[in-house]
Design goal:
With 515 residues, the protein is an alpha/beta fold. It has helices spanning 2-39, 48-57, 61-69, 76-88, 92-118, 120-132, 134-140, 146-166, 169-183, 187-207, 212-242, 253-259, 268-292, 297-317, 333-346, 350-375, 382-390, 402-411, 465-469, 487-491, and strands at 396-399, 416-420, 437-440, 451-458, 475-484, 496-503. The protein is built from 20 helices and 6 strands.
């Protein structure tokens, strides 16, 4: 009796100690994620997509729906940011913290749900990927919808599995709610939700038909609740087939897909080696899990199938009209992380997994330092500071590139801004930058204006400076063009040229004919 008691006592203390180690590991990852994500959210400069969010949130909820309906994104993220602004004010940092919240919720899925479904080890690796893969830092601190899209799609997949396995009513409700959240956040998250529902329906129909009624009712409820936006989606698809800005470089597509999760601030060789090592080790572990029939194999394979199905469908549709860029991998990345985390958990020599995670951690720390230095560089404020220093109340802004137009309209909303599209037609599609930003198609729209003009163009798209600077006495150059190569914006591919002109009343000389 005493021997049995001592055996049970030793087993209990060992398990208890092991549980504490797991808990410490999860707590450490959560703290690191909070530190990483929050500390990179307080910079004030923004690029165009973030300026779009700032401009969007200035409008009421109905106007947000109207503008997004005429664009290509669903409205849910902007509504979440709008709600945050009603509590904490309209500020870019508030919107970035909304994105951080979505990312932390995504990380918590590893601590809670993945851990319970796939085991402590797989849950820990999922959480590690969610915190330390370099791409996560980039998208956690930007005022865009990707972190929430990841949370919604991954959560929908998890609750679809729980509904299938346990058939609890609250699992079905949460599955439907998260699936709808996906559909209303990003169109690639909508694709993820579609394949989640499809895989669940196939599994129910082929294996557990007693769940068919509940499954069909849940899917029907989602369709009914998405129906108002479905008609909008159809009109968006029609618009995209006619004109869209994406161009796919198929020659480098495979490379870009393979290195996406590390390709932020690290050297090219390091990116390739890290990507190869991560995919090779985790992929081999996934093969081992399948071979040894681990209990989480089904979850891992289904998750990987959903991720690849979305990617495959996007590339097929892109044969008609290109609609894919690598950042659209983000909404369904949680499924890839589940599959690879399960694979890494199944690696027989966990020392190899430890070495891989150590290398990723070192790379992530270097990426954090480089990213932090870039986003908080004082040089990011160079153009705004120069404008602010000598700006007068009646000055106007003129652009030939929508990117600086959006950014500096948000920065100086009390002034009138003009976006010049030579030879274009009147734009009927609403945009969040109105009414401060006005689209003009002939410079004679400014014929009666007398005063100073801040001309801001992209370094690779200077259309007006040379022309207007030679058109005296209508225009007089006060400050010659200066190139603003600002670290954060140049990382996004934008280098701006700013200059200050004095405009006299009178017709504007026509642009020279384009060859």
């Amino acid at each position: 009796m005493l021997a049995k008691f001592m055996h049970n006592y030793r087993s209990f203390t060992l398990t208890d100690r092991l549980d504490r180690y797991w808990q410490l590991g999860y707590a450490g990852l959560l703290f690191a994620g909070l530190l990483f994500f929050v500390s990179c959210s307080f910079y004030k400069e923004m690029w165009f997509d973030e300026a779009y969010t700032v401009a969007m949130v200035r409008h009421d909820f109905f106007r947000i729906c109207e503008i997004t309906a005429r664009d290509v994104h669903p409205p849910l993220y902007y509504m979440l940011a709008k709600l945050a602004s009603l509590v904490w004010g309209q500020h870019i940092v508030v919107y970035r913290l909304v994105s951080v919240t979505g990312m932390l919720l995504f990380v918590l899925l590893g601590v809670s749900h993945i851990r319970r479904l796939c085991g402590d080890r797989a849950g820990l690796y999922f959480t590690f990927f969610a915190v330390f893969l370099p791409v996560m830092l980039e998208y956690s601190g930007e005022a865009r919808m990707y972190s929430w899209a990841m949370f919604f799609t991954t959560g929908a997949g998890i609750y679809a599995y729980l509904a299938y396995r346990q058939n609890q009513w609250h699992h079905w409700v949460l599955f439907a709610a998260l699936s709808l959240g996906s559909a209303y956040t990003h169109n690639y998250a909508l694709l993820g939700a579609f394949f989640i529902n499809l895989s669940l329906l196939i599994a129910v129909f082929t294996r557990n038909r007693y769940l068919l009624k509940r499954c069909l009712l849940t899917i029907l409820a989602q369709i009914i609740l998405y129906l108002p936006w479905l008609f909008v989606l159809i009109s968006q698809i029609v618009a995209v087939t006619q004109e869209y800005w994406i161009v796919i470089n198929y020659q480098h597509l495979l490379r870009d897909l393979l290195v996406f999760y590390f390709a932020e601030n690290l050297p090219s060789l390091a990116i390739k080696l890290l990507s190869f090592g991560w995919l090779a080790v985790c992929g081999f572990g996934l093969y081992t899990a399948v071979k040894e029939k681990k209990h989480y194999t089904g979850i891992a394979l289904n998750s990987l199938a959903i991720y690849l199905a979305v990617l495959g469908l996007a590339l097929i549709l892109s044969q008609v009209k290109p609609i894919f860029i690598t950042r659209y991998l983000m909404p369904n990345s949680g499924f890839l992380f589940i599959a690879l985390a399960c694979g890494l958990a199944a690696v027989r020599r966990q020392g190899v997994a430890a070495v891989l995670c150590t290398v990723i951690f070192i790379a992530s720390s270097a990426n954090f330092y480089l990213h932090y230095d870039k986003i908080y560089s004082p040089q990011n404020n160079a153009l705004r500071a120069d404008v602010t220093y000598s700006l007068k109340p009646d000055d106007i802004f003129l652009y030939t590139d929508i990117h600086p137009a959006g950014i500096y309209m948000v920065a100086f909303p009390q002034h009138q801004h003009y976006m010049f599209f030579p030879g274009g037609q009147e734009e009927s599609k609403p945009n969040p930058f109105q009414p401060e930003l006005r689209f003009i198609y002939d410079l004679n729209a400014l014929a009666s204006y007398q005063g100073r003009i801040w001309l801001i163009e992209g370094a690779n798209s200077q259309l007006l400076y040379g022309h207007l600077g030679k058109s005296e006495p209508v225009f007089k150059v006060i400050d010659f063009a200066r190139v603003y190569d600002m670290p954060y914006l140049s990382h996004k591919g934008f280098v701006f040229v700013g200059s200050l002109l004095q405009k006299e009343p009178g017709p504007v000389p026509p642009l020279p004919a384009q060859e």
